[in-house]
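For concreteness, we quote verbatim a single protein encoded this way:
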Amino acid sequence: MDEKQTVKVSKFLARVLRHDPASIGITLDEAGWVDVDELIAASRRAGRRFSRADLDHVVADNNKKRYAFSEDGRRIRASQGHSVEVDLGLSPADPPAVLFHGTASTTLPIVLREGLKPMSRQDVHLSADVETAVRVGSRHGRPVVLAVDAAGLAATGHVFRVSANGVWLTDLVPPTHLRQHAH
């Protein structure tokens, strides 16, 4: 599977496993899982042909570890980023003192005024390192990195969870716990 095909399948999986499973006639269970064979067959009916080996390649080689197989390898799900309702079953975790969030410079005034909200997703996504935040912020323009006082927020009762691919999740971050980070 070449790089171009890998990216195409990965983007298709993001749409189907995070946002619109019904578009190919599948249903995710309450934890976001779908049977691999069902996914491949439904994708084929929708005009997207890929094999189990192709799927294995996309899951193993995705540098962001966006997808995961169940322990028995028979089911697959997105690691986080869902706009459809799922319960990833992640336990609360104590965050590091500071986490980071990348955004575009054009959204900075709104974020500093209103804080970070999940928008169309279930959670606000935070990273443990500045480099990831820069990469995320670059998707939508000139990146700005925000430092999140995660320890202070946790002390006020906010719950943090960490996904299988290391993304920190929380319901919202008020502006009082944000500051611009020089990178």
In short: Residues 108 and 144 are 8 Å apart (CA to CA). The beta strands are 34-35, 67-69, 75-78, 98-104, 124-126, 143-149, 161-162, 168-170, 178-181.
